Amino acid sequence: DGTGELEKYSYSRDSYRGDLAVKPLPKTTVKTNLRYELYRYNKYFTEADGKAITGEAGVSYKFPFFTVEGSYGYRDFSCDKRIANKDCSYQSNIYKGALTLPKMPLSEKGKTLIQPSFALNYEQRFYQGSGSWYGGRADYTYSLMAGMELFFSPKMNLSLDYSHYFRNVETDNETVQRLKEYSENRLSAVLSYKF
Fold it and tell me: Could you give the CA distance from residue 100 to residue 84 in angstroms, rounded to a whole number?
């Protein structure tokens, strides 16, 4: 707005989703979902307004000592305003894998149960726009998650999670690579109680 100050970055999202899960075999579940999302950014970032359609299909299988799940998703994001050099439309492939162990006693005498889980996600995002910011750009995002859920009683549990997130950017623009390539680590703890 000409003041030289950074503008607040915010947006709203309307999301519509349909899910279907089928159990064709006793230990196998096939899942699919379809999402339609509308993104509306504040007045300083309207070039990113758009809609996304995402389809995902996966399968999970319960082995005696763990459950494994894998899925593939395809996402198409289309900008409402195709402004020259600012078209952030993209298409992406999304791969997900998860491993969950069964609930097991935390100690020999206690009643507390523990359930560890691990997940790995990978997304390949290919931008369709032109110009120096989006032209020929591809983002490769990896996320690794490890979690543990403690069940103290049927009504109370504690979730502890760690996740590592890394985005690698392929582009001819060194500024984009410097600004958009990053990694982060997250820790979370959630205590739940059912009344």
Answer: 46
- C-beta of residue 104 within 8 angstroms of C-beta of residue 114: yes
Q: Which tens digits make up the pLDDT trace of 151-180? A: 999 899 999 999 999 999 999 999 999 999
Q: pTM value?
A: 0.87
> For residue range 12-30, what is the model confidence (pLDDT) as tens digits?
999 999 999 999 999 999 9
Instruction: Sketch out the chain's domains with CATH numbers.
Output: 11-193 (2.40.160.10)
